[in-house]
Amino acid sequence: MSEIAIRVKNLYKTFGEIPAVQDVNFEVGRGTCFGLLGPNGAGKSTTIKMMTTLLPVQQGEIEIAGYSLTQNPFRIREMIGYVPQALSVDGNLTGYENLLIFAKLYGLSKKERAERIPETLQMLHLDDVAERPVKTYSGGMIRRLEIGQEILHRPQVLFLDEPTVGLDPVARKAVWNHIEQLRSDSE
Ligand SMILES: Nc1ncnc2c1ncn2[C@@H]1O[C@H](COP(=O)(O)OP(=O)(O)OP(=O)(O)O)[C@@H](O)[C@H]1O
Q: What would the pLDDT profile of 102-132 be if each residue is shown by its tens digit?
């Protein structure tokens, strides 16, 4: 894999008359945790949506793990994980069932699912609540489950859009500890 996980060059995006992203440039090295900071409306979510192929690139270049995004969008979708700002779990299903759906969507074999789902639940300290409907979870538990959904297929790059918004300081620290653990495990 390339030593550069993400390369963004001269990126622009407008919504009609609204300039959402204007000449954004940055590089993220492999094995690093990179934070994209800016005030509300600065264009962070729009940039993430372009890097995850959810919005077309209007002008500029994006490379993920050495692949050009515009030339290899399907390859890139297999290689990344994306935890969006909006809720991505089904509250009526259990934690285990939510992970099962994502494991199937990412094309994991039955054997891989049998190994990785319990392993992920354990790593995120959700094994005790795995059989409970997610609507009974706290905000921090839901956020950890959403991260779990996006690491089952071992992505090379994980995008997190405001992963700790709305969490209390203890839950926030727990989520960041898990993110740091994922980063160091991938070294
Ligand atoms: N689908 C859309 N249609 C029109 N305008 C949009 C759309 N999505 C975003 N915008 C506008 O683009 C700009 C950047 O929005 P974006 O959501 O990327 O910012 P952000 O930095 O993620 O903000 P926040 O911190 O509030 O999440 C804003 O002016 C927003 O109103």
A: 999 999 999 999 999 999 999 889 999 999 9
* Residue with tokens 């500890």, as numbered in its chain: 177
User: What is the distance between the alpha carbons of residues 156 and 147, in angstroms, rounded to a whole number?
Assistant: 14
Distance 48 CA to ligand 1 centre (A): 11
Which residues, other chains included, contact 59 with Cβ-Cβ below 8 Å and sequence gap of 6+?
A: 10, 11, 12, 13
CA 120, 102, 135: angle at the middle one, nearest 5?
A: 80
- Domains recognised in the chain with CATH numbers: 1-78 (3.40.50.300), 86-157+168-186 (3.40.50.300)
Ligand 1 pocket by C-beta < 6 Å: which residues? Answer: 15, 18, 20, 38, 40-46
Distance 164 CA to ligand 1 centre (A): 19
pTM to 2 decimals? 0.91
The protein residue whose alpha carbon is closest to atom 5 in ligand 1 is 15
